[in-house]
Design the sequence.
């Protein structure tokens, strides 16, 4: 291993990897060594396209075949943005080869797969982490400080979130509409973030019960089964908190979370992908309501909390910090069990939502 750099390989040529191509360069402790695809020509084309906008020096080399990249002796960590249905095989192979793994979400088609993945990584002594970028933003520590000091929200009672986008007309050909590649549809693609944010807010307390509703499912013509298109869920926790989320490929871009309690609420309108700019934050709202016979008076009391962090394409952005933090773990030689643990918890809640939605809203108990 390089003494100063975590040497990366990207397994596949997914669109999201283009963003992380830049994040690796901006990380400061990472070097992109290679990109693999099923053919060397495809990998070379992908590299050329990205190099034209965000060049790495030296340029990463193309590799034909995923196994060939996994076997490479000049790569320390592999980023895997392959479709969910393919992830288990290649994460386990990468771990067996001693490669640390940063994996897109959802990490498997179900928790059983994720348990196998994590067992393989633990046995090999390699780091596993999912690719939820907002977990590495400086906004989260600022949010935790507001929640913990108690004056902003008080006792948390309710968490509500939505992550959605309006799919284009040609979406029927997208892999997210194919049950063998992305069996969890919008629940896996979007709902994962809502579940993670809910669990993070509650310090990873797991729900007692939940119910989910499949509002609409569909699939492309070649799919063996339907996948969730629009789904909602309601979760109940032993602490007395309730939470809901809605995820959909049918509603225009929204990515908000609202955390409310006995003293106020906190609203974030861009918790997954921060709106463009040099700072990101959230609003603390503590409305004041007074009545005097016929006079009803509602006052807005809003305070914005922000951190100096660029939204994207910058050394301070959350995607860069994701790769920097992962690289720091690799270079330290230490494995942090927190990251695989929260991946499995998120997957278990996601599985329960999928089971409930498929069974007409059956209550699932943990």
Sequence:
């Amino acid at each position: 291993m390089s003494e100063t750099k975590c040497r990366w390989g990207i397994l596949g040529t997914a669109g999201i990897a283009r963003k992380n191509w830049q994040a690796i360069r901006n990380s400061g402790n990472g070097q992109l060594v290679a990109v693999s695809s099923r053919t060397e020509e495809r990998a070379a084309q992908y590299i050329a396209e990205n190099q034209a906008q965000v060049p790495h020096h030296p340029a990463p080399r193309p590799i034909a075949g995923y196994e060939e990249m996994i076997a490479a002796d000049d790569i320390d960590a592999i980023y895997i943005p392959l479709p969910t249905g393919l992830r288990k095989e290649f994460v386990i192979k990468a771990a067996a080869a001693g490669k640390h793994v940063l994996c897109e979400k959802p990490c498997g088609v179900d928790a059983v797969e994720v348990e196998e993945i994590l067992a393989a990584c633990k046995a090999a002594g390699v780091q596993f982490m999912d690719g939820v970028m907002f977990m590495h933003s400086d906004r989260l520590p600022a949010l935790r400080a507001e929640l913990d000091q108690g004056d902003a929200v008080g006792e948390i009672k309710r968490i509500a979130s939505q992550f959605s986008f309006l799919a284009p007309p040609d979406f029927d050909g997208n892999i997210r509409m194919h049950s063998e590649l992305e069996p969890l549809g919008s629940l896996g693609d979007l709902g994962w973030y809502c579940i993670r944010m809910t669990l993070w807010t509650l310090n990873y307390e797991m729900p007692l019960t939940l119910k989910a509703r499949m509002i609409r499912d569909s699939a492309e013509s070649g799919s063996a089964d339907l996948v969730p298109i629009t789904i909602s869920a309601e979760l109940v926790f032993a602490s007395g908190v309730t939470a809901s989320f809605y995820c959909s490929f049918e509603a225009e871009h929204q990515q908000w979370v609202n955390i409310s309690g006995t003293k106020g609420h906190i609203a974030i309108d861009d918790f997954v992908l921060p709106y463009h700019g040099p700072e990101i934050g959230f609003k603390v709202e503590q409305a004041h309501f007074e009545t005097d016979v016929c006079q009803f008076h509602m006052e807005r009391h809003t305070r914005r909390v922000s951190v100096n962090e660029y939204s994207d394409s910058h050394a301070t952005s959350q995607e860069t910090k994701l790769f920097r933090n992962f690289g720091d773990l690799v270079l330290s030689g230490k494995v942090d069990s927190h990251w695989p643990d929260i991946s499995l918890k998120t997957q278990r809640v996601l599985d329960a939502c999928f089971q409930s939605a498929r069974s007409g809203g059956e209550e699932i108990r943990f």
Q: What stands out?
A: The chain has a mean pLDDT of 96. Residues 138-317+346-365 form a domain with the Dihydrodipicolinate Reductase; domain 2 fold (CATH 3.30.360.10). The CA atoms of residues 79 and 103 lie 6 Å apart. The chain has two domains: 6-134, 138-317+346-365.
